[in-house]
Amino acid sequence: MARVKKVGMKQVALLLLGLGLILSAQSTKAQSKRKRKKANIKLVISTAEGYKGTPYQYGGNSRNGIDCSALMQNSFSKAGYQIPRTSKEQSKYGKKVGWNRVRPGDIVFFKFKEKRKKWYHSGLITSVDGDNIYFIHASTSRGVIQSNLSNDYYKSNVKTFRRVIK
């Protein structure tokens, strides 16, 4: 017959204390990861907002002139995320999310068609308030601006949403 060792109250208390410390450390680690993610999203958005008023320039990637995909690339780069250069390639990067799951920091992609020509466009979601989803982008006619996705022009041309910061 196996011998059972008596465990005193002191040993049980120490075991429970150790277990509590391990669980607390894991909880703190998860909280710190969430805080880092939030801070990165804020940094990406504030970087993009810093370009407001910058004129649109096809192929441009500076405050002298910028296109939509460079705006995304520069903004995410500031937070340490390296994403592809073109909107078409960016639209395949990250995790796909649906309309009902969109949140600040996600990228919205558009596909426009006109007279046998098609082109891609991207913008960064800056805020979500009910049906109002705001995004910042480099408009060909107005430069870097903030717009609302409830506008039919944008809403009807949305191709997908992607989440880079998971």
From TrEMBL:
Listed Gene3D superfamilies: endopeptidase domain like (from Nostoc punctiforme)
Record's signal peptide: 1-30
Keywords: Hydrolase, Protease, Signal, Thiol protease
InterPro entries to which the protein is assigned, alphabetical: Murein_DD/LD_carboxypeptidase, NLP_P60_dom, Papain-like_cys_pep_sf
Lineage of origin: Bacteria, Pseudomonadati, Bacteroidota, Cytophagia, Cytophagales
Record-stated family: Belongs to the peptidase C40 family.
Entry superkingdom: Bacteria
Start and end residues of each NlpC/P60 domain: 38-165
One protein family per Pfam: NLPC_P60
Hydrolase among keywords: yes
Keyword Protease: yes
Protein name: NlpC/P60 family protein
